[in-house]
């Protein structure tokens, strides 16, 4: 088992281990359920103190996945991960109704509509206070393994990737984890953008104007692989003698939060009549957000899956994702007790489903082998880790 403080350099085992967690609001419960299963397998192998941060060289997360990443890697007073994976699901069940307060009835729907037309659906105050309380003053360099959390800076109109690898070269990126998490979860129309200044130890100050990282990388696994490849190209001694294109040395687990792809919520005939308002609000959903987050995640999965298959290392890449969500299950903010508990059940069912791989022609995930479930695959990966 790796060091309790930092993961050992990948050359110790000659593999590079990457864990990636998609964005998805309250659907983070699905990912939390999968992560708890993986950590449980590691505990069986190495004891009850085993934590995901001990086994992965890089953990990347966007939006709600960015918050989960910080919770798994921020240190507590004993310099161990702040949260065990099994505790994250309870965190969502307890706090989601206060992050996304539900207004019921006709009057509630009217208030939601009016609020959506004049500003973000939620003010974010509870979420911001909660994140600051849990993560405290911990900064990017404090994480117990390397982390990568994408955001998007609307002033610069470009992604800002908070990478613990980059802190040495760009000290101004060494922001508080709380600010990073508030920024990466600031989904347009749902939560307000986050502005903050960060000063490095040389007195250089940078101002950030951040929104949800999902607009750039809802599935951050490619960002994580690219960052590692950059470190290899820059001759980071941690990665010697691994080659930049040696995908056989990568062991990648990508956790999705589900999507309503098969529900076919929208069509061209319907959208042909939409104006700006309809693209921002239709049937209780935000089509524009649905489109760019799903497109971002799928394009990454297409590329990674195709690359690993072409190089005959497909067994080194595991994507666990449910694209069959329907109705309220696919919402990012319906935080009723009923819906949250249903998301737990979806995560548990997903563990029992067969391992699937995206069909590069249809875009639909299809089972790759009979009898091998996602839970079986996690057990196999745990042994490799």
UniProtKB/TrEMBL annotation:
Domain of life of the native organism: Eukaryota
Q: CDD domains from the entry?
A: Pat17_isozyme_like
Does Zinc appear among the keywords? Answer: no
Q: Where is the active site?
A: 63, 212
Q: Which residues form the PNPLA domain?
A: 19-225
Q: Which SUPFAM superfamilies match?
A: FabD/lysophospholipase-like
Q: Which GO terms describe its biological process?
A: defense response; lipid catabolic process
Q: Where does this chain carry the motif GXGXXG?
A: 23-28
List, in alphabetical order, the Gene Ontology terms for molecular function in this entry: lipase activity
Motif GXSXG per UniProt: ranges: 61-65
Q: Could you say which EC number(s) this protein's record lists?
A: 3.1.1.-
Q: Does the keyword Glycoprotein apply?
A: no
Return any one Pfam family short name.
Answer: Patatin
UniProt domain comment: The nitrogen atoms of the two glycine residues in the GGXR motif define the oxyanion hole, and stabilize the oxyanion that forms during the nucleophilic attack by the catalytic serine during substrate cleavage.
Q: Which PANTHER family match?
A: PATATIN-LIKE PROTEIN 3 (PTHR32176:SF115), XYLOSE ISOMERASE (PTHR32176)
Family according to the record? Belongs to the patatin family.
The job of this chain, per UniProt, is described as: Lipolytic acyl hydrolase (LAH).
Q: What is this protein identified as?
A: Patatin
